Amino acid sequence: MIKTELIWMNGKFVKWDEAKIHILTHGLHYGTGVFEGIRCYETKEGPAVFRLKDHIKRLFDSAKVFMMEIPFTFEEIFEATKETVRVNKLKECYIRPIAYYGYKEMGLSPLNNPVDVAIACYPWGTYLGEEGLKKGVRCKVSSWRRIDSCMLPPLAKLTANYANSTLAKLEALNCGYEEAILLNFNGKIAEGPGENIFIVKNGRLITPPFSAGALPGITRDSVITLAKDQGILTMEADILREQLFLADEAFFTGTAAEITPIREVDGRVIGDGSRGPITGKLQSEFFRVVRGEVKKYLNWLDFV
Ligand code: PPE
Questions:
Q1: What percent of the chain has pLDDT over 90?
Q2: In a 3-state reduction of DSSP, which class is residue 150?
Q3: Catalytic positions, please?
Q4: Where in the sequence is the domain holding 216, given as residue range(s)?
């Protein structure tokens, strides 16, 4: 990890190496936190955060599901996020805001504990490798199922949910694959451990609906919008494992993963085994949009 200078903690900037918490922090023991992943890209007009308001809205939505009161307003977190990028003098970075139950009491009820909030930012290159972004990644359908909404809320970005993601990721890596794909409890495709998933079939996009356990991804939403502009329709529908095997193209979307093609699943080559034409088209449009090269979508950028 590449260190930067300052991290925002509860309203103050703290030096990177001093951004520490107590070992008995509630969130560390019980996964009682909510977080976001955001990217800031270099544009001709300076660094711009991609869809910052949507990310902060989702942070507050996650907290609502968890009945957690974030002790800062939307506006304060919005400004603090931009300020964190600014003080670290970064042109491009990944931004990680987190709100979690802090240190006071142990035991499952978090109600007596403070809610602490931090925002860090640091350079983070490609999520699944430069090669993965160009040629696609090899995936394994996980033996772990995506958490079901009656157990943990998959539509909220709760830190606890990522234990499920980590198990799937570990299994995929251990079996020699680059990424996992999780089925939901009904055996339909849900998403990757840190990405939404799309397939391309006969010129159309298909992606699992939220009811299948797909996080309301902001990149997912951006891709659906950009596809529509290009006359490519998206269906939100359940996807079977074999539909994935038989897709013309498949790709992941996510803030960290951006748009990453999938070239193989469980030993089946997807399409011709490289980045497909529709995936390529959406990917290059996405990178133009985040870098401020498409006028129509300048309103998705918040300049720091
Ligand atoms: N599903 C999951 C489970 C998920 O974690 C992410 C983001 C997405 C879908 C895509 O959502 P969006 O970023 O709004 O398009 N995952 C974040 C964390 C990744 C990590 O490894 O940490 C991210 O991409 O920032």
A1: 99
A2: coil
A3: 157
A4: 130-290
